[in-house]
Each structure stands twice: as C-alpha cells, then as structure tokens.
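Q: I'm a student working through a structural biology exercise. My instructor gave each of us a protein and asked us to get a predicted structure, then write a short paragraph describing it. Mine is DNA-binding domain-containing protein. I'm not confident about reading structure output yet, so if you can add a plain explanation after the tokens, that would really help. Here is the sequence I was given:
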Amino acid sequence: MSNQHAFTAALLDPRKACPPGLVSANGAAPESRFAVYRNNVLGSLINALADNYPVVVHLVGEEFFRAMAGVYVQSTAPRSPVMSDYGDDFAEFIKHFEPAASVPYLTDVARLERLHLQAWHAADAEPMAQEQIVKALSSPTLAGHLKIGLHPSLRLLQSPFAVVTIWAAHQHQTPVPFEAFPAQNALVLRNGLDVKVFAISHAAHGFITALQQGVSLIAAIEASNDLDLEHTLAGLIRHQAITHLLAEQVSP
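A: Happy to help. First, here is the predicted structure for DNA-binding domain-containing protein. I'll explain a few features afterward.
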C-alpha cells in the first residue's frame, strides 16, 4: 500500500493508528493532531451525506442517520472534490445495511434523492416550442417516425413503494406512517431552476424510457401496453421536457 493510500485509510478509519512519519509544525504530538483532523474529515463527509439525503435523515432520525453514514464514510473515500457528488452509491449501501431493514422503502427514497440531485446539476437545454411540437405530432405522415429528444435532467425510477408520496410529504417534514405503500414510478425533471418530482404510470415509465434510449415514437408506443399517449405527451410538453424532434430515416 502506498503512503497516500495508507494515509487515506487511516484518515477514514478511527481504528487505525496515526500513519508513521507525520510531524506537527508546533511540536504537538502528531497522533493527537491527526485524531482531530480525522474527526473533522469524518464529520464533514457525514454532513455532506446529510445535505445530499435530507429525506433519508427525516425518515430515520439524525442520530441513526449519522451512525449509518459513519459506517459508510469509513469505507468510501470521496472520488471528487465536489461534495454534491459524494454518496452516489449510498442507496446501494443502505440496501445492504441490516439495521435499516425495518424501513424497506429507505433505499428507493435515497435513490430518488440522488436522481433529484443529478437533475439539479444536469446540463441546460432549451425546451422546444410547444407549437412546433404540436404541429409535428399532428402530422400523420411524420409523427410516427419521430424520435423525441428529452431534457438532460430527466430521470426515471421504478419502485415497489410510493416513493414520490413519501418524498413529497417530507418536503415539509410531515411524518409518514410506516405501512405498505403501493408501487410508484417517479419522473424527475428540472424546469429552469426548479426540480420537480412526478408520479407516473408504469406504462408511461416504459414509454419514456424507450424514448430516452432513442427508440422512435411509434416503436415506443407499440412497446407500451395500456399507455395513455395523449396524457403522457401532454405532460412532457407542458413541463418542457422535450428539447428536439428528429425524423427517423425510413427505408423505401
């Protein structure tokens, strides 16, 4: 192990001894100075997770969250100096964190919070004028062969729990009772400086996923059973999720 890796490992794990070779500028014992520095680093990383996952904090309480986050940070060093990037796999950690098993929807709430953060930091894109979209979709010869470009911030999530309802309730810190919630699909989208979270149908989730993958409009429709096409397209247009339309090349 390199000196740098050894230093990082000791910095994140309070059980490890102070790395050899450290010298304190003021003559103080390097072990005590390193311990203070380590506590500050660990505390900062836990605070960063709390900032990135506020609804998870509300669901389990600050004491439990900080204990859980403490276990996470001891094995996960930051890969970027941008603290909003920290904890991108925190939901997967929660999934396997046994003390959190009593809150079965916690993993998916964390996933939704990560998508919300990603949407906030996603690239900007100018939405296409609604009149242009409606005109193109109204053309029977053109509409079926269009590929629909969606805003870079658009994110999707499937869950067996009502993650949108849980997330929305905790925007005002309203307590949500522990019970079996019906499944929900989430759509996350930034409109200007406002990131919104919507509950969408299973059919709409499949349809929009296909569009994101570059499938033509007609193929996406054919692959989506029980789709309310008019309602779904109207929602994408109304919330300025469509950035461009591309005519698919059709073989003669």
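A: Here are two points you could use in your paragraph. The CA atoms of residues 118 and 228 lie 28 Å apart. The longest strand covers residues 184-191. It's a good idea to check both against the output above yourself.
Q: Great, thank you!
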